[in-house]
Structure formats: structure tokens, C-alpha cells
Amino acid sequence: MAEQAKSGFMSWYFGTNLLIRIMAGLVLGAVVGIFMAFSASPETVASFVGYTKFFGDIFVNLLKMIVVPVIFLSLIAGAASITPGQLGRVGLKTLLYYLITSIISISIGLTVALLLQPGVGLGITGAEGIAGKAATAPPLSTVLLNIVPTNIIASLSKGDVLPIIFFALVFGISLAILRDNKDDHVSKYATMLYNLIATAAETMYLIVRGIMQYAPIGVFVLISVVFAQQGPKVIGPLVFLTLCVYLGLVLHLFVGYGAVLGVFKLSIFNFLRKGNEPPIMAFVTRSSSATLPVTMRVTEENLGVPRSISSFALPIGATVNMDGTAIYLAICTVFIGNAVGMPLQFDQLVTLTVVATLAAIGAAGVPGAGALMMLMVLEAIGMPVEAGSAVAAAYAMILGMDALFDMGRTCLNVTGDMIGVIAVSKSEGQLDTSKWQLPA
Ligand code: ASP
């Protein structure tokens, strides 16, 4: 009988949509936490935190376990998938566009965050009442110098993300060059290595999906602790944060992309009329990669981009060009700093700009990838997510609502990829602008 009930719960749990379960974890956690905040004595709250802490901490540990392997393997696989032959003028233009728009998006994100200061006054404390680690971000010159690892094994074992990214990119590009080698023997083994690494990256994504099965419970515990300790005063700041993120996304759409199209005498409104299908798909699926087939079809059929450009730039864009993710990272990191009472200093903001660009490049085009990248951004600016710390509590709040952020940022990610191929095609004189005419 008990066995039956148990398997009933298990099949209900695994049979229900993950997103719904995570949202349920968030809402239930908030309800339980608010109930405790109002009705329980401080001693009861403390013992509740004591009993449940383990279940939240294990979730944080699981996430941290996977972050280095995911970044390392997926970046190598991503960089190695570009054939050097494609890196001609069109390739360079595309990469330059990706880089410039990423930096613009982070600037917009930071401007919104610094003007509106989400999270100020929240005063989140850790489960143990500690205020998180003191932010001792190293000076910028040291950050830049340390991007080049002196010992990659040491960087991997310490989880130093910037050197890991640097090495993975260098390794991936070198592997791409070897895959193209004239000697069949060399290219065969290089391709074999590439396939192995790509499979290893896929394996890591599978593990991430597995860990996410635990997310509803992890989020429930972490959120209930936050609300039990902070009370309902955290709801307002979270709504405000959501508004800030969406404001950043919309600003980038109209100001950033509007300007790029304007340079080429094209209108963002025509673009939205003719090309809205991929952004909508992205909003719903929360995955640039899953949206890719639609993105390719619509840019070719409705917006006049030649296949020679879309077929190579869009797949790369779906993995490396993530303006929405960059905006999300910038704004949410400022929020976390404010929420734990350690507003980001100038040096940290500069580091954030560099790291968020790299994190957006490193994020895979799958749901929730950006939230994982947030862990490495926080690490790099000297606010590591450690079990029981205030930073972990603030991070959990954001993670609980990630689906909401993910929809918006993926939508902008895909839009940015489309604008990129349009701009590059137009600059090459290869855009069929007749497709842009609206029916009279
Ligand atoms: N879901 C996003 C995408 O596919 C990545 C992210 O989580 O930021 O573009």
C-alpha cells in the first residue's frame, strides 16, 4: 500500500512538467516561508532552517559540481565546430557583430541596473546568518592577466572560470584547424577527438537535466528559508527585478537593434512584422538551439538572407551570441550584490562586463543555461555561491524565477542572431530587400 503511494508520488513527480514543478516549488516555498515568518518564534525558524538546510545545500553543490565541466567541454566543442574556411570576411564580420552587440547589451543592462538599483535594502542574510563572503574582487589588471592560465589543471581544479574559458577557446580553435588539416590521418583523429568532446558535452547536459529534476525541491527549501527569515518583504523587490530585466531587453531591442538596422536603412518594425515567428518560438521553448530551424527558415524566406550566410552564422549565433543572457547576467548580478548588502564596486563592474560577455558566449542555447553561468560570474567578481551564504540565498531567489527571465532573454538572443545575419548580408550586398516590402 505504502509502496503504491510512493510509486504514485514518483510517477506524478517525474510525469509533471519540470517548469510547473519548479514554479510550484517556488510558490510553496514562499507560502511556507511566509507562514513561518508570521507565526513561528525565532527559535522555531532557526530549527526549521537547521533541518532543511541540507536539502538546499545539496542542490547548490550539485550545480557547482557541473559548472566547470559544462563550460569547458561545451566551449571546446563550440569553438571546434567552426571550420577555419568559414572564418573569411563574412565570418569575421559576424563575430565582430556578436562581440559588439554583446558589449552594447551589457552596457544597457548595467545602465538599467545602476539607475534603478534593484535589490537595494533587501538585506538578505545567509542560512547561518552570515553576510556572505566579503567582496574582495581583485583589481582589473590582475583579472586580465589571470585570464591566461599558467597551469590549466590548477585552474580546472580551483574552478577559475576565466582561464578555463580562455584555454577552452584556444584549444577548440586549434582543434578546428587540425580538423581541416590536409593530412587525412591528422584530420581523421582530430575529428574523432572533436566527436568525443562533443559527446562528453552532451553527457554533461544530460547530467544538468538530471540535476534539474531535483530543482523543485532545492528551490522549495532555499526559498522557504529566505521567506522565513526575511518575510514577505522580498516579493516587491523580485517583481521590480523582473521589470528591470524586461526593460533592459526591450531597450536593447529598440535602441540597440533598431540602430543596427537603421545603419542599413532597414526598419525594426518591418523586421518585427516579417520575422516575429522565431522570437515567439524562443519565448515559448526557452532554447535558441531548439528554435534554430525556425530561425533559419524565417530569415531566408521572409527576410531575404542568403543560405550561404544563414547556414553558417545562425548555428554559431545560437550557441555564442546571447545578448539577452548578457543583459540578464548584468542586471541580476547587480541585484544580488545589492540584496546581500555588498553593492558592486567599480572594479567588480568592469570585471562583470568582461565575464558576462564570456559567460554569454559560454552559455549553451538550452533552457536555463544562463542561470548556470551566473554561478561563474558571481565567482569571478568575488561573490562565490557557497552553501549557506547570503549570496546562495539571493541566487536561489533568482533561480526560482528563472523560467520567467529565460523566456525574455532567449527571445532577445534569437532576435540578435537574426539581426546579425541581416546586417552581415546587407553589408555584403546580398540581402534580398524586396522581401522587406510590406503588402500595400
Ligand atoms: N535559454 C537561453 C537560450 O537558449 C540561454 C540562457 O539560458 O540564457 O538562448
Report on this model:
- By secondary structure, this protein is an all-alpha fold.
- Helices cover 76% and strands 0% of the residues.
- It has 19 helices and no strands.
- The protein has helices spanning 2-15, 18-39, 42-80, 89-116, 140-145, 152-158, 161-179, 184-212, 215-230, 235-263, 268-274, 277-285, 288-301, 307-320, 323-339, 346-362, 369-380, 390-400, 402-427.
- Helix 3 packs across helix 9 and helix 7 (161-179) packs antiparallel against helix 8 (184-212).
- It is globular, with a radius of gyration of 22 Å.
- The N and C termini lie far apart (69 Å).
- Residues 127-135 have low confidence and may be disordered.
- Bound molecules: aspartic acid.
- Aspartic acid is lined by residues 286-288, 322, 325, 363, 365-370, 406, 409-410, 413.
Which descriptors would you attach to this protein?
globular; 0% strand; mainly alpha; binds aspartic acid; 440 residues
Layout of strands and helices, then pairs:
Blueprint: H1 2-15, H2 18-39, H3 42-80, H4 89-116, H5 140-145, H6 152-158, H7 161-179, H8 184-212, H9 215-230, H10 235-263, H11 268-274, H12 277-285, H13 288-301, H14 307-320, H15 323-339, H16 346-362, H17 369-380, H18 390-400, H19 402-427
The protein binds aspartic acid.
Aspartic acid (ASP) binds near residues 288, 322, 368, 370 and 406.
Which blocks of ≥5 consecutive residues have pLDDT under 50? 127-135
CA-based shape:
globular
Number of strands: 0
List the ions, cofactors and other small molecules found in this model: aspartic acid
Rg value: 22 Å
Write down the overall mean pLDDT.
Answer: 84
Structural category: mainly alpha
Strand content: under 5%
Main beta-sheet annotation: none
Summarize the amount of helix as a percent range: over 70%
Q: What is the tally of helical segments?
A: 19
Terminal-residue CA separation: 69 Å
